[in-house]
Amino acid sequence: MSDLFPKDFLWGGAVAANQVEGAYNEGGKGLSIQDVLPHGIKTPPTAEPTPDNLKLEAIDFYHRYPDDIALLAEMGFKVFRTSIAWSRIFPRGDEEEPNEEGLAFYDRLFDELDKYGITSLVTISHYETPLHLARTYNGWTDRRLIDFYLKYCEVIFRRWGDRVPYWLTFNEINSVLHFPFVSGGIATPKDELSRADLYQAIHHEFVASAAATKLAREIMPQARIGCMVVAAPVYPLTPDPRDVLAAMHTDHDSLAFSDVHVRGEYPGYFLRRLREEGVDLKMGDDDLRILKENTVDFVSFSYYMSVCESGTREVPAGEGNIVGGIPNPTLPASEWGWQIDPVGLRIVLNQFWDRWQKPLFIVENGLGAKDVLVEGPDGTPTVDDDYRIDYLNDHLVQVREAIADGVDVMGYTTWGCIDCVSASTAELSKRYGFIYVDRNDDGTGTLARYRKKSFGWYRDVIASRGATLR
């Protein structure tokens, strides 16, 4: 059937180490920036880990991963996206030798995935910069982080290069514009951070990403290396050309990050921004060559929402559109105010494909909601999450349409395939998963796992290659 997804399409789900593993002080792990963010990415860090930080235990994936991976296999997952906690491998981030106990944990994790034939997609740095690097070096504002990151990359590439075929260098790298501490490990408060320091940190991450891509090709030439960005299409609020121009400028802010990764050079509109803001980047002699010669194999992205922009009037931003912009009056929103726009996913897939002609991978998409446990038909607890099924169905239909448009889409991994601690709010009540985890925002709960209604729905979608989509 021509309307089915490709046979080699990578169906699966995604998590991040800091949101599922827990065991924050076990196995020789050092502290990460997430261990001092008990209330989400918009709040200032605490001096030390505090008991109200749900990520310290999270959903205890560190100890329960065999059972959790068995559930993912039951759904028919082809791929599982997770991250490696940098501070499990290098607890401070600047040591000479890695922590073998941390490496051994991921050996066991990949063994379990291999047992079920689930392919691994690994994010190297997913919002979990070692806290020592943030507080001692001010994160990526310091060029020395490039070498610390590359040492970390070399260790994990040599350890798992023959087992992990897909790698992402940085999670949502363009989010540093909005959340410098979470995305760039930059300890300077955002309202005190100079534009020069912010753009310098961005440059260092670009160079590190390109150098890691070079290293990956030397150590594991069979692997494919991608960048990862937040994708949020930007619509003009009205047809007024000034609104269209404002939308273009906001879009450029994010597109620049993939432009550099794919084209290997800074786009003219980005260089103009630097000139107008008086920023003179400090570059190493080989930086531009490294960027040019080590472009990525594919572009991956998260997709949750679209935004509007206006150049003609001030409109208060909505409560939840976390990347800013103006709420779209034509769209509904989730319980957290994120606007729901399935068609926007088809739009952004076409935009990215037309712009870069690189394979695309949707590595995050999902609906955060307050799920309620009920008794299922067989007497076991479940969640009747038809709202999640509707959301995912409507987005996957648009992915299918984009593929029919000629877009090369490698795969689709839903965000938080098992309930995890929210990055944006540090809540567990903001649930995304097909699997319910019995843990509450106050830390209570048994950590038991229960299949939601969406569990069986996604299993059937995968098994039918999308034929069951409505």
Automatic annotation (TrEMBL):
Any GO BP annotation: carbohydrate catabolic process
Catalytic residues of the enzyme: E364 (nucleophile)
Signal peptide per UniProt: none
GO molecular function: beta-glucosidase activity
InterPro entries: GH (IPR017853), GH_1_N_CS (IPR033132), Glyco_hydro_1 (IPR001360), Glyco_hydro_1_AS (IPR018120)
Record key words, sorted: Glycosidase, Hydrolase
Listed GO CC annotations: cytosol
SUPFAM superfamilies: (Trans)glycosidases
One Pfam family recorded for the sequence: Glyco_hydro_1
Taxonomy, superkingdom: Bacteria
PANTHER family named in the record: 6-PHOSPHO-BETA-GLUCOSIDASE ASCB-RELATED, GLYCOSYL HYDROLASE
Family (UniProt): Belongs to the glycosyl hydrolase 1 family.
Listed name of the protein: Glycoside hydrolase family 1 protein
Organism whose genome encodes this protein: Nanchangia anserum
